[in-house]
Structure formats: C-alpha cells, structure tokens
Amino acid sequence: MASIQKLRLQRGWSQQQLAGASGLSTRAIQRLEAGAAPSVESLKSIAAVFEVDFQSLKENDMRKTANLGATSSSAIDLSDDARAQAQLEREEVQAFQYVRKLKGLYRHAAQYAVVIPLLWAINLGRA
Fold it and tell me: Does the pLDDT at position 62 exceed 70?
C-alpha cells in the first residue's frame, strides 16, 4: 500500500488539507510523512480520510520502519519483488522532486504576477 505522503499527493492535497480532513495537526502530518511512528488513532483517522484499509497503512508503516534499519550492503541480493519495490521508490522520489520544482514554478509565477503590476502602478504614479 502507498505511503501517507503518496496518497496525499495523488489527491493533490496539501499537508494542511489532510490535517483538516483527518482532525490531526499539520505538524503531526509532517512527522508521519518524515517517518515517525504513528499512533493507531492517527492511522485510523488517515485511513478513513483516504478510504483505505487501516491494516494496509499499518503494514506499510511497519515495512518502512524495517527498511530504515537496513543497510545498503543488505540490498545486494534483491529478489524481483524487492527490485520492483526499489524501482517504485526511485520513481516516487523523482515524482516528489518534480512536484517540488512545479511548486517553485508556481511560486515564482505568483510573485511575478504581484510584483510586475505593482511596479507598473508605481511607474504610472511618477509619470
């Protein structure tokens, strides 16, 4: 099952939107996405919001925690399933990087949309 961050991004939600829908704080969502161990209540709340099975979120969290302790040397003998999972994780990282770049583009476009008319108005005021 997908991670909380992946589920959130698939729906195009911000962390604040997920926090509001789940009844958790934005900081709690940030901690969960960073890999902190979630409480059962938090997982149930998020599973209800995403309409997914609570067990699948719990199992995904347990796998993520187990993977954090693994070293790169243990990744030498990967099965086909593990290779496929590693490929998916690389694709997720690439998708997150793309989303960050896109957010930067939109932020710069918004700044441009505010600053240029402001400078234009100042220039008209001097004429």
Answer: no
Q: Which of 15, 13, 38 is nearest to 26 (CA)?
A: 15
Are 12 and 61 contained in the same domain?
yes
- Distance from C-alpha of 124 to C-alpha of 40, rounded to nearest angstrom: 60
Mapped to the 3 state alphabet, what secondary structure does 17-66 carry?
HHHHHHCCCHHHHHHHHCCCCCCHHHHHHHHHHHCCCHHHHHHHHHHHHH
Highest mean pLDDT among 21-25, 88-92, 93-97: 21-25
36 or 68, greater pLDDT: 36
> Hey, is 117 helix, strand or coil?
helix
Q: Is residue 4 within 8 Å of residue 33, measured between CB atoms?
A: yes
Instruction: From 22, 26, 65, select the one nearest 47 (Cα to Cα).
Output: 22
Q: Is 64 found in the same domain as 19?
A: yes
Residue 15: domain span? 1-69
Query: pTM of the prediction?
Result: 0.49
pLDDT at 46: 87
